[in-house]
Amino acid sequence: MTKNNIIKAHLALFGTHVIYATNHFIAKGIMPEKLSPTPFVVFRVLGAGILFWLLKAFIKEKIEKKDFFRLMLCGLFGASCNQLFFFHGLSLTSPIDTAIIMTSAPAIVFILSMIFIKEKPNKNKIIGLCIGAIGAIALVWHGHVAEGTSSSLGNLFVFMNVLFYSLYQVTVKPLMKKYHFITIISWVFLFGLLFIIPIGINDVLHQTNYKLFDTTTYIIIAYVIVFTTFLTFLFNIYALKQVSPSVAGSYSYTQPALSFIIAIILAFFLSNDTYSKDMNLVKIMACLLIFIGVYLVSKKPKAIE
Q1: For residues 144 and 80, is the Cβ–Cβ distance under 8 A?
Q2: ∠ CA 246-252-254 to the nearest 5 degrees?
Q3: Do 290 and 160 touch, CB atoms closer than 8 A?
């Protein structure tokens, strides 16, 4: 592993989270005035699924019959439920709140690992979970009384997105040891599409007013499909070949800071003060509590000499 490859991996991770943070503002820009969350999810899963299956054409690999049920669960958790909750949550709440809540993912994964694969907790992890939970609960509650675009229901939906994506991460883990990642993600998006079509087909065909779409609308949909979904996944996989999962996971901490920066640029340089009231002390404190909690959960115990 060369130093140049490690630098490229860190650039890939940073680029991934810049895309994620930007997506919170860009995707929200057309919801729900021009496009409702549910058809947006249909377009995302369908578009990204097509791109992944085009890559899959170059990978000749068969799935064992016993693994299809697990893949179906991965599609339900990772490409259907989590996306529905994310887009519905984002349409209701602040992109800054969204970015902060997303940093709780490592703690949620640890809780699910304790439940499903019997990972053992220690004192630091328990304390971390409690501290992080206080921050998350405070942020959801604050959405009910805060000024700006915050929403307690929206924050709760975003948290449900984190929960379902964490379930996906725990469920997909055994498959990652058996199959190529493109094979897995292709089937995940296919099953996700099968789950999402019955929910969203009516909205796509009859409830969406396509006359309201302009060039910007199509560009935003393409951005979410190509950049937020397809490229970020490839960037993450490339980075994970060079650095450890803990290093990759630590980049999620950059999202709130990036979201604050984007909001400041919008408010003070582009004269868009929509999110100017979304930056306050309560959110900063909640963000710090979640950071501390996730750090304690992710911290490896010292080896006994």
Answers
A1: no
A2: 120
A3: no
Section 107-136 average pLDDT: 74
Higher per-residue pLDDT: 172 or 136: 172
> Is there a contact between 86 and 24 (Cβ–Cβ < 8 Å)?
no
pLDDT in tens, 44-75: 999 999 999 999 999 989 999 999 999 999 99
Question: What is the C-alpha separation between 256 and 97, in angstroms, rounded?
Answer: 8
Whether 248 maps to a domain, the answer reads yes
Q: Is residue 194 part of a domain?
A: yes
Peptide linkage before 32 cis (omega within 30 of 0): yes
Average pLDDT over residues 242-271: 75
At 83, the pLDDT band (50, 70, 90 cuts) reads very high
CA distance 279 to 284: 8
Scanning the structure block, which residue is given the tokens 């997303």? 102
Q: How far apart are CA 147 and CA 11, in angstroms?
A: 35
Joined together, the tokens standing for residue 141 give 């509650």
CA distance 4 to 18: 21
Q: Give the per-residue pLDDT at 303.
A: 45
Domain count, the chain: 1
| pLDDT exceeds cutoff 60 at 304 | no
What distance in Å separates the CA atoms of residue 140 and residue 50, rounded to the nearest whole number? Answer: 35
Dihedral class, residue 120 (left if φ above 0, else alpha if ψ from -120 to 50, else beta): beta
Query: Residue 303: inside a domain, yes or no?
Result: no
The range of the structural domain enclosing residue 111 comes to 3-298
